[in-house]
C-alpha cells in the first residue's frame, strides 16, 4: 500500500492536544512531524493506544485469513525472540535449526519423495513464498532453454484469474507474461482443459490454488497435472506445477489425506503456504518448499555456514524477526498431527454449519459451503432489489463484524458476493451471534426503497481478491 503524504488528508488536523493522565498538563503533539522534545513513556503509550482503539476488532474480522488468536505461551515465546534477526543464522544457530526442522516437517506432511532432499525456507508470508517459487520456475526454464539454444525473452505463467494478487505482482516485477484463465459461468477456478490450452514452449509453469481466496474452493491439482503429463507426451513440452497452498496446504493434509495435490504428483515442483493463516501463527511467516534440489536452481541460493554446517538461504527480504518461526515450531510441537486435525476440523465444522444456516435465509444463495478450506461465499438471491451485498457488509459492520463484499473478476464481474473466513478462535458461539445479527438486519434492509451501498463503498476491503489489472490479451487468450 502506498501511504499518502499528510497534505492529502484534507480533513485531518496536523496536530493534537492531549491530556493522557489527570495530573498532567495538556501536551501539544504534532501528528506528522517529529515532536521537538521527549515525553514520558506512559504518555506516548497512551496516545498510541487511544488511537488504536479506532481499529476494527481482529477477532471479528471475517475478511482476513490471518491468525488472530494464539496461546499465551506462543505469544511469550514470540516476545522473547523478537530481537533475534532471522537472517543472522550464524549468530542465532538454534533459531536456524528450528527453521530447518519446520521445513523437514512440512516436507513429510506434503509427501516429498525424499524429505531429506526437499529444500525450503521460511518467508515473511505466502506472498514472498509465491514469488520465490515463481523465480525458481523462471530460472529453471531459462536454464533449459539456454541448454537447447532457444530464446529466453518471452516467459509466461499460466494461472486462473482467481489467483491472489501477489502473482500479478510477480509477473510485473519479474517480467513474466501472466496468462489468466477467466471465470466462465459457474466455473470459478482453473480447470485442466483451460490451463493446458494456454501452455506453450515459453510457459515456465502452471499455478494451481489450494483454497481460492474468492470462494475457498480447491483447484483440481491432480487433473491439471495429468493433463500436463498428456501434453508432454504429445508435444514434448514439459510444464511444472506450483501449488499455492497459502491456506489449503495446512488444511488438506489433516482433513483430506486422500486428496492428491502435493509432492505425490511428480509434476508438482514446489508448494507454498502461509504459516500465519491455517499454520496458526501470528503474522508474518510463510513457507516455500521444493521437491528436491533440482527444482530450486542453485544459482538462486546463497549459502551460509553455521556451526560447521551449510544453511542455504533464499529470500527477497533481509532482516526480520525469528519470533514467528519459533512460534511455528512451537505450534508443530504443541499440536502435532492430531492437534492440527482437531483445530482444522473444528474450523470446517463451524464454516459448514454457518453456511448451512445462512442458506436457509431467503435472502441468500451459497456459492460454496466451507467444506474444503473453512471459507465460503454467498450472494444476494436474484429478484431482491432493496439491498446489495455491500449493504449487508455495511450493516454487519455496525455491530463490529468485518465481512467483505466484492465482485468476481473478468467474465463474472456481474457476480457480487460476501465471503466469510472461519479461523481458529471463531467458535460456534460467535457463529450464532453473527447469525443473530444477520437475521436482525435483514428486515431493515428489505424495507429500503433501494440499495444504498455499492462497489465504491467497499474500498480496499477485499483481502486478496483484487481485480487483476486490465491488459491487452496475448495471442493465446
Automatic annotation (TrEMBL):
<feature type="compositionally biased region" description="Basic and acidic residues">
    <location>
        <begin position="465"/>
        <end position="477"/>
    </location>
</feature>
<protein>
    <recommendedName>
        <fullName>Glutamate decarboxylase</fullName>
        <ecNumber>4.1.1.15</ecNumber>
    </recommendedName>
</protein>
<dbReference type="GO" id="GO:0006538">
    <property type="term" value="P:L-glutamate catabolic process"/>
</dbReference>
<dbReference type="InterPro" id="IPR015421">
    <property type="entry name" value="PyrdxlP-dep_Trfase_major"/>
</dbReference>
<keyword id="KW-0663">Pyridoxal phosphate</keyword>
<dbReference type="GO" id="GO:0005829">
    <property type="term" value="C:cytosol"/>
</dbReference>
<keyword id="KW-0456">Lyase</keyword>
<comment type="similarity">
    <text>Belongs to the group II decarboxylase family.</text>
</comment>
<dbReference type="InterPro" id="IPR010107">
    <property type="entry name" value="Glutamate_decarboxylase"/>
</dbReference>
<dbReference type="GO" id="GO:0030170">
    <property type="term" value="F:pyridoxal phosphate binding"/>
</dbReference>
<dbReference type="GO" id="GO:0004351">
    <property type="term" value="F:glutamate decarboxylase activity"/>
</dbReference>
<dbReference type="InterPro" id="IPR015424">
    <property type="entry name" value="PyrdxlP-dep_Trfase"/>
</dbReference>
<dbReference type="InterPro" id="IPR002129">
    <property type="entry name" value="PyrdxlP-dep_de-COase"/>
</dbReference>
<keyword id="KW-0210">Decarboxylase</keyword>
<feature type="region of interest" description="Disordered">
    <location>
        <begin position="453"/>
        <end position="477"/>
    </location>
</feature>
<dbReference type="Pfam" id="PF00282">
    <property type="entry name" value="Pyridoxal_deC"/>
</dbReference>
<feature type="modified residue" description="N6-(pyridoxal phosphate)lysine">
    <location>
        <position position="277"/>
    </location>
</feature>
<dbReference type="GO" id="GO:0004058">
    <property type="term" value="F:aromatic-L-amino-acid decarboxylase activity"/>
</dbReference>
Amino acid at each position: 500500500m502506498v501511504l499518502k503524504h499528510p497534505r492529502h488528508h484534507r480533513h485531518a488536523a496536523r496536530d493534537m492536544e492531549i491530556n493522557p493522565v489527570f495530573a498532567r498538563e495538556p501536551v501539544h503533539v504534532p501528528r506528522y512531524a517529529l515532536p521537538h522534545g521527549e515525553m514520558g513513556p506512559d504518555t506516548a503509550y497512551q496516545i498510541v493506544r487511544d488511537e488504536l482503539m479506532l481499529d476494527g476488532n481482529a477477532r471479528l474480522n471475517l475478511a482476513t485469513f490471518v491468525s488472530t488468536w494464539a496461546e499465551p505461551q506462543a505469544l511469550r515465546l514470540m516476545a522473547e525472540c523478537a530481537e533475534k534477526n532471522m537472517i543472522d543464522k550464524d549468530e542465532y544457530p538454534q533459531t536456524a535449526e528450528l527453521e530447518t526442522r519446520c521445513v523437514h516437517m512440512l516436507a513429510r506432511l506434503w509427501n516429498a519423495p525424499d524429505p531429506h532432499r526437499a529444500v525450503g525456507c521460511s518467508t515473511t508470508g505466502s506472498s514472498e513464498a509465491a514469488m520465490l517459487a515463481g523465480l525458481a520456475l523462471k530460472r529453471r526454464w531459462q536454464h533449459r532453454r539456454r541448454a537447447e539454444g532457444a530464446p529466453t525473452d518471452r516467459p509466461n505463467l499460466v494461472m486462473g484469474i482467481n489467483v491472489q494478487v501477489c502473482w500479478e505482482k510477480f509477473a510485473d516485477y519479474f517480467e513474466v507474461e501472466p496468462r489468466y484463465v477467466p471465470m466462465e459461468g459457474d466455473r470459478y477456478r482453473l480447470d485442466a482443459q483451460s490451463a493446458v490450452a494456454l501452455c506453450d514452449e515459453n510457459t515456465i509453469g502452471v499455478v494451481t490454488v489450494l483454497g481460492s481466496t474468492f470462494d475457498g474452493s480447491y483447484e483440481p491439482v491432480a487433473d491439471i497435472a495429468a493433463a500436463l503429463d498428456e501434453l508432454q507426451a504429445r508435444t514434448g513440452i514439459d510444464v511444472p506445477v506450483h501449488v499455492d497452498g497459502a491456506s489449503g496446504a495446512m488444511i488438506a493434509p489433516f482433513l483430506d489425506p486422500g486428496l492428491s495435490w502435493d509432492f505425490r504428483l511428480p509434476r508438482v515442483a514446489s508448494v507454498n503456504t502461509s504459516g500465519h493463516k491455517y499454520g496458526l501463527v501470528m503474522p508474518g511467516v510463510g513457507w516455500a518448499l521444493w521437491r528436491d534440489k533440482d527444482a530450486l536452481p542453485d544459482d538462486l541460493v546463497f549459502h551460509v555456514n553455521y556451526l560447521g554446517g551449510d544453511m542455504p538461504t533464499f529470500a527477497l527480504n533481509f532482516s526480520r524477526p525469528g519470533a514467528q518461526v519459533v512460534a511455528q515450531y512451537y505450534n508443530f510441537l504443541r499440536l502435532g498431527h492430531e492437534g492440527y486435525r482437531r483445530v482444522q476440523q473444528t474450523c470446517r465444522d463451524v464454516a459448514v454449519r454457518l453456511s448451512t444456516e445462512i442458506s436457509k435465509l431467503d435472502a441468500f444463495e451459497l456459492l460454496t459451503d466451507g467444506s474444503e478450506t473453512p471459507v465460503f461465499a454467498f450472494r444476494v438471491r436474484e429478484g431482491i432489489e432493496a439491498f446489495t451485498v455491500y449493504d449487508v457488509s455495511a450493516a454487519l459492520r455496525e455491530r463490529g463484524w468485518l465481512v467483505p463484499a466484492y465482485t468476481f473478476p473478468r467474465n463474472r464481474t456481474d457476480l457480487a458476493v460476501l465471503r466469510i473466513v472461519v479461523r481458529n478462535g471463531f467458535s460456534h458461539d460467535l457463529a450464532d451471534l453473527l447469525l443473530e445479527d444477520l437475521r436482525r438486519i435483514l428486515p431493515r434492509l428489505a424495507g429500503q426503497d433501494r440499495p444504498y451501498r455499492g462497489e465504491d463503498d467497499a474500498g480496499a476491503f477485499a483481502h486478496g481478491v483484487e481485480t487483476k489489472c486490465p491488459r491487452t490479451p496475448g495471442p493465446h487468450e
